[in-house]
Give the backbone structure.
Amino acid sequence: MSQGEPNSSPAQFDVFVTYQSILQNEEISTPLAAILTLTQLIEKSSAGTMFELVQALNDGAEILKQRTPNPISLNAGCELFIAFVTLFPHDSDSFSDLKTELVKQGRNYATEALTYRDKIAALALGFIEDDSVILTHSYSRVVMKTLLRAHERKRISVYVTEARPRGLGLRTYDELTAVGIPCTVVLDSAVSYVMDKVDLVLVGSEAVVESGGLINAVGSNQIAIIAKAANKPFYALAESYKFHRLFPLSQYDLPTHNPNVLSFPPASVSTSLPTKGAVIGSGLQKITPAEGSRSMTQEQVARNPNVDYTRPDLISLVFSDVGSLTPEGVSQYLVGMFAG
Amino acid sequence: MGTEGHSVANQRVVENLASKLRRRQVVGSRETALETVLVLRQVVSKARFSNIDQLVEVIRSVGRKLVDAQPKEHTVGNTVRKVLHHIREEYHTATQGTVLASSSKNTLSISRFVLQGQPRKQNALLKTSADAKGTLKENDPDDPDSFARGLKPVLMEAIQDVLDELETVYDNVSKNAKDHIHSDEIILTIGKSATVEAFLKSAAHYRKFTVIVAETAPSYTGHDMAQSLSSAGISTVLVPDSSIYALMSRVNKVILGAHAILANGGMFAITGSLLAASAARAHSTPVVVCTGQFKLTPQWNLYHEYGALDFADPSSVLGFEEGDLVDKVDVVNPYYDYVRPEFVDAFITNDGDHPPSSVYRLMKEAYDDEDHEL
């Protein structure tokens, strides 16, 4: 009867719009927003059986996935919630009671999960020595929290990568200098130059996968490789809702990889000639920040990945709200959750 | 609460051990662990408590006192944690059906769901505590001691388990020695670790092999080790520490003892171990560590600086007879090396062989998270 669920629900309840509006809250990360969206979906859903409900949730998750350019961490949240719903014991009197219970659980979790960053910061604090020099990559809320927390007790200084093309490292720089933490932005290409001065590397995460590897803003992998070569610890900070059941064997197994990324454009004069005149002549260069400085065109940026995969053997530890884990520990959690 | 009456007696045994630890009259990881269990047994047998939290607090305060007395003897804290873990387990088995069942049913939440991946010992041997069921009542106002009376027999049993584990540790570590050492192999070891000694001697029943013992300056415990091994009929070569690297190319395996194993898989071991381990790494020689699981210490060794180590008496490095020199130089004699997890290939324990990367899991199984800080 409610086979039309996936078609009819967007009319009354648009998952994507809800998801977007939840994400407006700075504190809520994508997996949590996904969980909250699915929670609302349950509330609005007219499903009368478990099968229909799970079906509706899967459809909702599918819509979210298709409409987001980088669905990795969103997927982690959706999968966690759907697996939870399927395993939740049916001891309510009626199905609608069960739904209310599930909604309550989802909300509770979201509130609880907001405290996870503090937990992680407290955990990571023990690994930051007085007078440490820390290298971080791009912008991560949990890393920020950790650094701010460390600043209260210890003297730390921070190098942050610029993290092109989005330049989020500058945001980290602004927020850190605002509270008086000595901070310097380094070029993404200067990581190996700076590594000898660094005591430890702290990065956030998009997801931590079943191999124990890390998916994070592009550039994390090269930082990890350089850190390993210089024998510096590389720590990833990840809330447990970012544990994702995925087993990439290479960069190109990530769901964000598509044929366009790293493709070679058909050779044409306008794009292949790297002279300044040609670029301007092609009319593609819209955003020239300073005269004379050269930056990539939108098209060129689009041929680049957003996230990359860091192998588990490069990661010293993963700090999460469930404790400091070795990369292997993460896979154990994932197996326990989804296969147990 | 009502513990004042008996606290005097408890205090005395605790103080006694604490001062022995402080004065270094009890040394060595197994010795200190054994003494700690014995003290805890006395404390528990005399403690008065009417609920589990009071008992846990009593044990913790004793633990804190002992750990503070000698923080470098990590096994003291480990033993306290282990006892606490066993006690909680017994308590849960004993009260199962009364406290737990009512609460566990509707507490499945998403965060609980995530915790399903948490490492836990599955084979919790459901012991014969059925008789205790039903009679246990916490915070009984009429008879505050009834809880303690009901629980104490099982608690004693739990502590006995910890004691038994410590007493059989060498046998259990060396149980599979013959599978790790092959005929005609050349083994290198350093220092005198009772565990390694038992391990090699046990293997010697089945195989002929040669052991190179580094003399382990400045304590020269290698001398005793060499003597003990050769008297057991093992072909033994005693060498100075400085030749470890040169000999490494002929060595098939390095076997080390440990003082404490940390959560990251690194360990504290007698000085010279790091030298041996890094020489082994340069020659791709496997490094195995023989150890009892009571040495697992739930700390991620954060700062492995020189100063984090234990320092021994410098007179064995530079004696006072060298009067002219003594006031011109600083003499340090660190007792332990920190060996990073990358240098260790396997830990042979009394409960299976494990790579350094799964040490943290053993720790989660052995101790409760809330006890990491006593």
About this structure: The first strand of chain A starts at residue 132 and ends at 136. The two ends of chain A are 33 Å apart (CA to CA). Chain A is about 45% helix and 15% strand.
